[in-house]
Write a structure and sequence with these properties.
single chain; alpha/beta; Glycerol-3-phosphate (1)-acyltransferase; 7-stranded mixed sheet; 11 helices; 16% strand
């Protein structure tokens, strides 16, 4: 039943899905609770304290949820609405005959990014996933991930080994780097003016395999026109220290998020302290907490 429902939703036009999603996102935000508090607090931490910004961000979260079935079950139709102005960043990395580590934050339509590379650009990508907490969603997600050119591996040691093998062969892999890692898998690093427990896996993979690191996101275009994929290469050489690596990757994500701030998933509990992790240290002296952005970009 759940699979049939998602397939039906995927049949609806993208503009309709975005309108419905934004409406539902605003409805959910209207109810007081932890979701609204966290969204507003995290957005304010990044320099976006206006309640109207939070409402628009909640609306974009709704649009993100409603567009997923379209991307999962009608990828060709979705990719026909997807463009990129800077794919040359990927082409330059490929010309170096090195693998590529793609880092995709929870920004815009992060489900379209790997499909754009794998299907539209014919570059196989291996991505890492975490099993859903609700078993009922497992068949749905298994079907959604069954896409030519896109290989999904579990977020465990087996998946990490497959990542390393793929990168050493000169292949490409993709990670969501702004997920809070578990004990022993992260370090504290600044993220929008506050220390956030940040995964070290991305830095370890890059250091072990010597690949190029590219941050990317799928910007949701107005009026259901589709998406624009943005690519940005992380400067090299990468530092050796895990905390310095995490700081560099967080800064690269911040820069990308600033381009479309309302489309970031501000409601995610990014600043939590995982069980067993050390307490958060104070911010470095050279970083100002809660910096106000130089401008706000409205998607």
């Amino acid at each position: 039943m759940l699979l049939a429902l998602f397939r039906f939703i995927a049949l609806l036009p993208l503009p309709v899905l975005h309108v419905l999603g934004r409406f539902l996102g605003r409805v959910v935000y209207a109810f007081p609770g932890r979701y609204r508090q966290r969204l507003r607090a995290n957005a304010a931490q990044a320099g976006y304290p206006d309640p109207s910004f939070a409402r628009r961000a909640a609306a974009e979260t709704g649009a993100m949820m409603m567009e997923m079935p379209k991307v999962w079950f009608r990828p060709e139709e979705s990719l026909a609405k997807t463009v990129s102005d800077d794919f040359h960043v990927v082409e330059q990395a490929l010309a170096e005959n090195r693998g590529i580590l793609f880092l995709t934050p929870h920004l815009g339509c992060f489900e379209i990014t790997a499909r754009y590379v794998a299907i539209a650009r014919h570059i196989p990508v291996t991505v890492m996933f975490r099993p859903p907490r609700m078993a009922a969603f497992a068949p749905l997600l298994d079907t959604a991930r069954n896409t030519p050119g896109l290989q999904a591996v579990p977020a465990n040691r087996q998946g990490v080994r497959e990542f390393v093998r793929t990168l050493r062969r000169g292949g490409t892999v993709g990670l969501l780097p702004d997920q809070a890692p578990g004990e022993g898998d992260g370090v504290w690093a600044p993220f929008f003016g506050r220390m956030a427990y940040t995964m070290t896996l991305a830095g370890k993979l890059a250091a072990q395999t010597g690949v190029a690191v590219i941050v990317l996101a799928g910007e949701r275009l107005p009026r259901g026109r589709g998406w624009r994929i943005h690519f940005s290469r992380v400067p090299e050489p990468l530092p050796d220290d895990p905390q310095a690596q995490a700081t560099l990757f967080n800064a690269a994500m911040e820069k990308l998020i600033r381009q479309m701030p309302e489309q970031y998933l501000w409601s995610y509990n990014r600043y939590k302290t995982p069980r067993g992790a050390p307490p958060a240290p104070p911010m470095p002296d050279n970083t100002t907490a809660g910096q106000t952005p130089t401008g706000t970009d409205t998607p």
